[in-house]
Amino acid sequence: MQRQRTGELIRLGDGPSLEVLKRSILARRPGRTWEDLITGPGLDPEQVRSAIREGLKQNYRALSGIENWAMTLTAYKPKTPAESAAAEVIRQRVQSWPKGREGSIVLWGEDNGPGKTHLGVAYAIAVLDLPRPYSVRWWRAADLFHGLELGRFDEESPVMEETRQCRLLVLDDLDKLNLSGNRQQWGLETLYRIVDARDHRDLATCVTTQLPREGRGSLREMFGRAITDRLPAHWWTRVAGPSGRAKT
Question: 81-238 has which fold?
């Protein structure tokens, strides 16, 4: 019995959240509390807590959506002062984590390939690598909305709930969303629900885009005030430089 219980505790992190798993374990043991389980005879509470932390960290990494784990802050090689400054902002966000919505950042710049995506992924990886486990989700914005359209998941699915509730959400290439024609109203409402939910829950959001916040050809012109007001000006950091994709 003790071996089975210990195994269940060590496997925490296989599911979407600690709370869901705790409820699942406790449901099979009426009248017991979580403290009963982690302080039972023969169990070292600190070892159990350590196993829980590591299980959650592995779970959050598996659910993060990150495609290229080589895109770390260490691997980012700035070529311009603007790129160096943007990388330093990310480092400061990680060092002072968690900061709620003030951990948010919008990485923008008209240039193709100066590393906005790399920095967004690096931010996500750095938070996942912190000693305490935090839930992180990286999305290519067009893929998120394409998945919704195809019915791979819906507004009430665990995928969308995770997108609205994870501690850090990275939306890559937000300006690449195609919300024209009969998709526009649906797309704007969906995006608003995401950013508004995160704003109310005081959660960090990282956006990458080639468009400025205001003016002609801006995110405000594309998405409207209700959305861009939830991406305030002090979050915006410009990333300008030559393309890292260029062949030498």
Answer: Rossmann fold (3.40.50)
- DSSP 8-state secondary structure symbol assigned to residue 74: T
Look up residue 74 and give its two tokens: 């260490």
Q: Are residues 129 and 90 in contact, defined by beta-carbon separation less than 8 angstroms?
A: no
Token pair 């089975």 is at which residue? 4
In three-state secondary structure terms, 61 is helix
The DSSP 8-state label assigned to residue 183 in this structure reads G
CA distances from 33 to 30, 37, 39 (A): 9, 7, 10
Domain boundaries, the chain: 2-62, 81-238
Res 16 pLDDT > 80: no
What DSSP state is assigned to residue 76? -
SS3 47: helix
At 141, list the tokens: 């914005």
Q: What is the pTM assigned to this prediction?
A: 0.83
User: Given this model, what pLDDT does residue 151 score?
Assistant: 74
Q: What does the buried/exposed string (b/e) look like for 186-214 if buried means 16 or more CB atoms within 10 Å of the residue's CB?
A: ebbebbeebbeebbeeebbbbbbbbbbbe
